[in-house]
Amino acid sequence: MKKIIVPILLLCCQWQFSCGIVGIEVSTKYSPDWTSLESRPLPDWFDNVKIGVFIHWGVYSVPSVTSEWFWFDWKDPFHNKELHEEILSFMKTNYKPGFSYQDFAREFTAEFFNATEWAEIIGKSGAKYVVLTSKHHDGYALWP
């Protein structure tokens, strides 16, 4: 996994600096309430760049049968019964009994990941910044 994440992080850092975007240093301490959090300044560039790319990538891409809500839809029969049944059928057809969501992590190798290709696509999109969601709601982190 480290072989995957390091190029992604380098790509994001390179992209940030090649676009002339730099972070702001903030020494203010914030408290865990909305008023405090809403008082933090936005970087000057943020309102001007207009287009950015947020990358959501995780173990749910291994089965690639639904969205990043795969685990939720697999385990919750009440939210979307039709989708739940579709996932159950997919799992029964493609995985052994007892296979868990966490087991997908071993198969998440990003075999076809190509940082150069991603950079070219993002560059052509006109995006001025990239954010990689490094830890999603399922708890899987894209770092060792």
From TrEMBL:
<dbReference type="GO" id="GO:0016139">
    <property type="term" value="P:glycoside catabolic process"/>
</dbReference>
<protein>
    <recommendedName>
        <fullName>alpha-L-fucosidase</fullName>
        <ecNumber>3.2.1.51</ecNumber>
    </recommendedName>
</protein>
<comment type="function">
    <text>Alpha-L-fucosidase is responsible for hydrolyzing the alpha-1,6-linked fucose joined to the reducing-end N-acetylglucosamine of the carbohydrate moieties of glycoproteins.</text>
</comment>
<keyword id="KW-0378">Hydrolase</keyword>
<dbReference type="GO" id="GO:0006004">
    <property type="term" value="P:fucose metabolic process"/>
</dbReference>
<dbReference type="InterPro" id="IPR016286">
    <property type="entry name" value="FUC_metazoa-typ"/>
</dbReference>
<dbReference type="InterPro" id="IPR000933">
    <property type="entry name" value="Glyco_hydro_29"/>
</dbReference>
<keyword id="KW-0326">Glycosidase</keyword>
<dbReference type="Pfam" id="PF01120">
    <property type="entry name" value="Alpha_L_fucos"/>
</dbReference>
<comment type="similarity">
    <text>Belongs to the glycosyl hydrolase 29 family.</text>
</comment>
<feature type="signal peptide">
    <location>
        <begin position="1"/>
        <end position="20"/>
    </location>
</feature>
<dbReference type="InterPro" id="IPR057739">
    <property type="entry name" value="Glyco_hydro_29_N"/>
</dbReference>
<dbReference type="GO" id="GO:0004560">
    <property type="term" value="F:alpha-L-fucosidase activity"/>
</dbReference>
<dbReference type="InterPro" id="IPR017853">
    <property type="entry name" value="GH"/>
</dbReference>
<feature type="domain" description="Glycoside hydrolase family 29 N-terminal">
    <location>
        <begin position="27"/>
        <end position="144"/>
    </location>
</feature>
<keyword id="KW-0732">Signal</keyword>
<dbReference type="GO" id="GO:0005764">
    <property type="term" value="C:lysosome"/>
</dbReference>
